[in-house]
Write a structure and sequence with these properties.
There is one protein chain. By secondary structure, this protein is mainly β. Helices cover 10% and strands 35% of the residues. The chain is built from one helix and 14 strands, in the order αββββββββββββββ.
């Protein structure tokens, strides 16, 4: 009789545990960001009921579970692990950082794998803005040209990249003193797929 009672208690405890069990889930889902070249980007990720290990991936390449990411000296995983916060911080953003990122939480015990995506867009700086010709009352033409450092992107195995390089012009016809202003040109990587 005593063994039967113990088995019944064990079954009831197991059922109570399963009934109260909650899967790990994203408390804060990563959101896509647009940042200016040279600035800091922080992709947020917070997990509730965390049981598995957390890592970030960039364009499908896993960055690892450590807060210091080997091979990516400008990347760190920051946050409060006790509260399930695993943000990816990228300092001094460059056009090479523009990618699809994924916060990945691995399986553990009865917890399933969960993943959430966010893209990072880096708005590049204009290398120079050159006045082609300008006379008051005449036509003013400005040229924005990007340098070679901004026109390349890391190419992974079995991938191809087509670069369409184009100078961007701003033309002001019949310029007046009212046209005097600060003009800005922004560059972004275009991925053809």
């Amino acid at each position: 009789m005593c063994a039967t009672t113990r088995n019944l208690v064990a079954v009831l405890c197991a059922l109570a545990c399963v009934a109260g069990f909650q899967q790990q889930y994203f408390r804060i889902v990563p959101r896509s960001l647009r940042v200016h070249e040279g600035s800091e980007a922080v992709l947020e990720c917070a997990v509730a009921n965390l049981a598995g290990q957390v890592q970030w991936a960039k364009d499908g390449f896993a960055l690892g579970f450590s807060s210091v990411i080997p091979g990516y000296p400008r990347y760190t995983m920051i946050g409060d692990r006790r509260h399930g916060v695993y943000n990816l911080r990228i300092v001094n953003s460059t056009l090479e950082d523009e990618a699809e990122y994924q916060c990945q939480v691995g399986p553990a015990q009865m917890h399933k794998v969960i993943r959430a995506n966010a893209s990072l867009t880096v708005i590049g700086k204009c290398v120079y803005l050159r006045i082609v010709n300008s006379t008051l009352g005449d036509e003013a033409e400005y040229q924005c040209q990007v340098g070679p450092a901004q026109m390349h992107k890391v190419i992974r195995a079995n991938a191809s990249l087509t670069v369409i390089c184009k100078c961007v012009y701003l033309r002001i016809v019949n310029s007046t003193l009212e046209d005097e202003a600060e003009y800005q040109c922004q560059v972004s990587v275009l991925t053809l797929g």
